[in-house]
Every structure is written in C-alpha cells, then in structure tokens.
Write a structure and sequence with these properties.
Elements: E1 9-11, H1 43-68, H2 75-106, E2 123-130, H3 135-150, E3 157-164, H4 169-185, E4 191-196, H5 203-215, E5 221-224, E6 230-231, H6 233-245, E7 249-254, E8 257-258, H7 264-275, H8 277-288, E9 299-302, H9 303-309, E10 315-316, E11 322-323, H10 328-338, E12 342-346, E13 352-354, H11 360-376, H12 388-417, H13 445-459, H14 461-471, H15 474-478, H16 483-516, H17 535-541, H18 543-558, H19 566-573, H20 575-581, H21 586-589, H22 599-602, H23 606-622
Parallel strand pairs: 2-3, 2-5, 3-4, 7-12, 8-13
Antiparallel strand pairs: 1-4, 5-9, 6-13, 7-9, 10-11
Subcellular location: Cell inner membrane
GO molecular function: hexosyltransferase activity
Pathway: Glycan metabolism; osmoregulated periplasmic glucan (OPG) biosynthesis
C-alpha cells in the first residue's frame, strides 16, 4: 500500500445512484417540498427575540451618543460608538434567547413541533465520514450504536456506512481490519459497509456527495454522524419516527451533549454544555421553529430532498480559482428551507453525544477552521430565495467571530483612556488634529468600567440563569453530587471561563485577520486525543497573547492603564501556563470541585460505557502484531 493510501477500498452494496446537482445561488429554486398543512407560530417568539435586543441597543447607543456629543463627535468616537452597538446587540440577543427559553418552559411549550402523524417504515443509512481518525474509537462507537439499535423494537431498517477519506496508509490498514471485525460481530439484520476513497475530493462534503450519488437512492433518510459521534438506538429511532411522521421536514437536528472530557479544558466545556447549554438550545428551538439550523452531525436528513436542494457549488475567487464552502452545514440547511422544506431542532431529545477537544490549543485549531468557514458565509447572504431566518443564521455565525476583533479594539481604546484624564494616553497625541477625540469630562475609568461590567454581566447571564434554575431544584443538584458540589463546580467553571476568554479573543482575532488577508490554512484531522504540548510549542502558539499581556502589565505598573484591566492582563500574561494547565487530567491531579462533575461524569450513560469497553477491546486486537482480522 502506498504511503498516502491512494488506492481505494470498497465493501459496499449494489449501487443505487441518486442525482445531486450544485445549486445556483443566483436563481430562486423550484419549491419541491409538500405544502405546509399547519400554520407556524413563530412570529411572536421572533418579536420577543429581536425587539428587546434592538430597543436596548438603540437606547444604549442614544445614551452614549448624548454623552460623547457633549464635546462634539470625532471620527474615533463614531467608530467606538459603532463597535459598542455591534457588541451590545449580539450580547442582547443571547439574553433575549434566555428569556424566550424561560417563557417556553413556563408556558410548558412542547418540544419544537413534535410530529403527530403516522410514521411509515423507512430505510435509514447511518453515515460516519472519517479522516485519519483513531480507528478503535470510530469502530468502537459504531459497534456500540449497532448494539443499542438492535435492542430497540425498531420500526425502521438501518444500515451503517463508514465512509473513509483516510490518507495515512497505516491507519487505512487498521480501518480495513476493524471493519472485518465489525462486520462479523454486528447484530443480525444490521448491514455494515465500508468505503475508502482514492482521493478525498472536497473533503467531508465530497465524501457525502460520493455516497449520495452512488448509493443514496436506496435509502429514504440518512443520519449524519461525526467520527466522535455517539447516539443511542432510542435517539436514532426517534429521529427516524419524527422525519417519517412529518412530511414537510427535510432535516431534524439534535443537541449533542459532550462526553469523554478527561482534561481540565474539556471538562470546562462539558460542564458548561450540560449545565447551561440546554437553556440556549431551548430558546433557539422556540424562536427558530421550522427555520432551524444544521450543525453537520447527529442529525437526520431526507435523502432525496437533500440531493435535490442542497448541492453546493464552489465559490469563485480572485485569479480564477475557486473555494470549497467549508462550513457547509449552515448553507445546506438554508438551501433546504428555501426549497420549502422545514428544518427542525429537537433540544429535548436525549441520547445524542459528541466529544470535545481536550486542550486549549486543539480547541483553537478547530476554531480556526470554523472561523474561515463562517466568515465565508458573508459572501452568501445575497443568495436568492433564502428565508430571512436562514440569512440570520449565516450572519450570526460570521459575527460570532467578528466580535472578537471588535472586543479587542474596545480593549485597546479603553486601555488608552487610562485611569483618569491626567493619564489618558490619547491626550499625548496632537490635539490640533481635527480627528482627535475631545472626550467629555465624565469619561473616566469609573464610567468605562461600569459600562464594561454591564457587558460582562450580560455575557454571563446564560450561566447565571442556568445555574440558578439548577440550584433551586434539589432533584437537579443531586445529579451534580449535591448543591455544594454544584455551586463549587459552577464557581470554578466561571473563573476558568473568564481566565481563558481573553486568550480566545486574541486567537479568534488572529484567525479573522488570517482569513481576511487570504492566508491559506492547513486542513488537518482534528486531534481527539488530549496530549500535553511541549513548552516550545506553547510559547510559539501563544506569543501574541503573552506580548499583549506584557504591554498591559507595563501600563498597569506605570499607572497609565485602569486597574479594572488586571484580570485581562493577567490572563494574557499567563497564556502559556493556562494553556499547559488545560491538558491536566482531572481525575489524576485535581481535587473534587476542580473536576467540575456533572450528571454524565458521575453516572455515565450505558451506551458511553459500552462504547468505551468496545474501544479498549478493539484497540487490544488491532495492536497485536500480525493478528488476523478474523
């Protein structure tokens, strides 16, 4: 076998081709979905989302404008006012989403339009695209899902396809051996197939298109999984039922819960996801309704609708070259909706899991890829026929990254304002310049700090509300080991989130700048195994944050920078040790509260335990030299 594993391997059923053409973004598509047979009740929810956020932002900007205009508005003041408005409205939308979630819970709203109709049996394909992954983890998860499905009294027929784009020859050989083992041990009646492409054209998008155009016609629906996805048989069968019973739906997205967090940084994300993530998901489901979104995995899709409406073209760029659409999931959801299909979100469906990067560096590397894809969505906002909510999803994804440069600029401006008028660094510039801002007398460190503390409070609102709901219910706190254990873990999570936030702000700002200047990015496989990075790699990766931290610290020591910047300066100055600490195994080195225990760490679901067991068994077999697959 060649070093790059270019030779294809195929163990697939008889071909069943399904045509899939790239869509024209400049032309309105033909509506291919069945007509809606019931009215949507989304208007009031959307007014509840946008109106408070817009009104609050307008009132804030009006107040700040009146404050700035006391001494006249200069160019820098207009720029600062615009940045404040940009950051505040998106933070306000998060707060509005929490309000909608609470309103839905108080009104006992049902789970995002659960289907009520008859569910005809469907042929459902479980698709697991992989690329240079840990073979035992992928096939161990697959085996656990098949076992769990076999225990269901399934109304539908399921077939598993492992779709490999692996380039590494040794990994490809392990995949073929693991497939042989899985095929032998799979439950009766469960079809298991494997295919590795000779060339990984168009990455994951091309991998799925290859399956759809080769075998898609034989399957009514496809459950798209990631290499680290894990779903219970009950969750998969519920998705199939919902899609079958709702003829207007083309895609139903679950809300995956994080599992397998063994390091400090991964446990931080897992605790946040479980303790507060449900609240944001509940709010999103209430206002999005049939214009939901797609996250690229742990979702079920109607195969023919996807093939007819969601084919992606390449985007033209300067020099006659073309770009693949990287964050394809948001775009595919928008294309399905513009063809008349509903895209649903079911946050209350349990049994949908995924893993998370184990270290700060691995998280940032994944985030850099997502940044490029989400900023690409700005070019797609003018796509003909998109529903307004679909356009908002695209814009929201892009702005979530643009906010980091905005926050960074605000940080610089407020740093230059100094402690008071006498230490205002801006005053050292030439006041004869007509663009020089003549700050009002009230522009002091107190006023600046008050404004930013309000912003911080709003950023923490989802955490505070989610934690408050859990702390108020004894049954909920018992799942976290008791109220004291929960509140201790909550405090640790908030502290660490605040500590890592400035580092992530700088890293996202760098990613935005790289994307803006057209710097090419290496699309490597995601590192799903947490390994501590050596000091030289940490220094090379975090030199910018460390440099900014040194400058801020010098400003603090010299008395030129407000003292409220101490937490931010400390975080940036300590970027390297904080990054090193992110890889600490929580069970081995950290005491109880620092482990941030949650219901899924204290009582792992049965399918997670089974997957872990099968991973170990498969790893033992694959590591035996010259061990025959049979």
């Amino acid at each position: 076998m060649s070093e790059n594993a270019k030779s294809a391997f195929m163990a697939m059923p008889r071909r069943a081709p399904l045509e899939m053409l790239a869509q024209d973004f400049d032309q309105h598509p033909v509506n291919s979905a069945p007509k809606q047979d019931r009215p949507e009740t989304s208007l009031y929810w959307r007014l509840a989302l946008f109106v408070p956020a817009l009104v609050g932002t307008v009132l804030l900007m009006r107040g700040i404008y009146g404050w700035f205009s006391e001494t006249g508005m200069a160019g820098l003041e207009w720029f600062l006012l615009s940045l404040i408005g940009l950051t505040f409205i998106w933070v306000s939308l998060s707060v509005s989403t929490i309000g909608i979630a609470l309103a839905g819970l108080l009104a006992r709203a049902t789970d995002a339009q659960c289907a009520k109709g008859h569910a005809a049996p469907m042929d459902v394909a479980l698709l697991m695209p992989i690329y240079n992954e840990a073979t035992s983890d992928v096939f161990g998860n697959a085996a656990a899902m098949l076992d769990d499905l076999a225990r269901q009294k399934a109304h539908h027929r399921y077939t598993l396809f492992i779709l490999s784009d692996t380039r590494d020859a040794a990994t490809a050989a392990r995949e073929e051996r693991a497939y042989s083992l899985l095929q032998v041990s799979a439950p009766a009646g469960m079809g298991v197939f494997y295919r590795r492409r000779a060339e990984n054209t168009d990455k994951k998008v091309g991998n799925l298109v290859d399956w759809i155009t080769g075998w898609g016609a034989a399957h009514d629906a496809m459950v798209v999984l990631d290499a680290d996805s894990l779903m219970t048989g009950q969750a998969i069968d519920r998705l199939a039922y919902e899609l079958s019973a709702d003829p207007q739906a083309a895609l139903i997205q679950t809300c995956p819960v994080l599992i397998g967090a063994e390091t400090l940084f991964a446990r931080l994300q897992q605790f946040s996801n479980i303790a507060y993530g449900w609240l944001m998901s509940e709010g999103l489901a209430n206002w999005a309704r049939g214009e939901g979104n797609y996250w690229g995995h742990n979702a079920i899709i109607r195969t023919r609708a996807f093939a007819a409406c969601a084919g992606l073209p390449r985007l033209s760029r300067r020099g006659g070259r073309s770009d693949l659409i990287f964050s394809h999931d948001f775009v595919e959801a928008g294309l399905l909706r513009r063809a008349g299909w509903r895209v649903r979100f079911m946050p209350r469906l349990t049994g949908s899991f995924e893993e998370t990067p184990g270290t700060l560096i691995d998280y940032v590397l994944r985030d850099q890829r997502w940044c490029r894809g989400n900023l690409q969505h700005l070019r797609l906002l003018g796509t003909a026929g998109l529903h307004p909510v679909s356009r908002f999803h695209l814009l929201h994804g892009a702005v979530s990254y643009l906010l980091s440069p905005a926050w960074f600029v605000l940080l610089i401006v407020w740093s230059l304002l100094g402690k008071d008028r006498d230490t205002n660094v801006i005053s050292y510039f030439n006041e004869a310049n007509p663009l020089f801002p003549d700050w009002p007398p009230a522009m002091s460190h107190i006023d600046s700090a008050v404004f930013l503390m309000i912003m911080y409070a709003m950023l923490l609102m989802p955490k505070l509300v989610g934690a408050g709901i859990i702390a108020a219910h004894p049954k909920a706190t018992r799942l976290y080991g008791g109220r004291r254990a929960f509140l201790s873990a909550f405090g640790v999570e908030v502290f660490l989130s605040i500590a890592y936030a400035p580092i992530l702000m700088i890293q996202q700002t760098r990613a935005v700048v790289r994307t803006a200047i057209g710097r090419e990015m290496t699309w490597a496989a995601q590192n799903r195994t947490a390994v501590a990075y050596p000091l030289k790699d940490l220094l090379r990766f975090h030199w910018v944050e460390t440099g900014v931290g040194i400058v801020l610290t010098m400003g603090l020591v010299s008395g030129l920078v407000s003292l409220w910047l101490i937490p931010i300066a400390a975080s940036l100055l300590l970027a390297v040790p904080l990054s090193a600490a992110s890889a600490l195994p929580v069970a081995r080195y950290l005491p109880g509260p620092l482990r941030m225990q949650s219901p899924l760490t204290l009582r792992e679901p049965g399918i997670v335990q089974n997957a872990r067991r099968k991973r170990r068994q498969l790893l033992t077999i694959l590591d035996r030299p010259h061990q025959a697959a049979e």
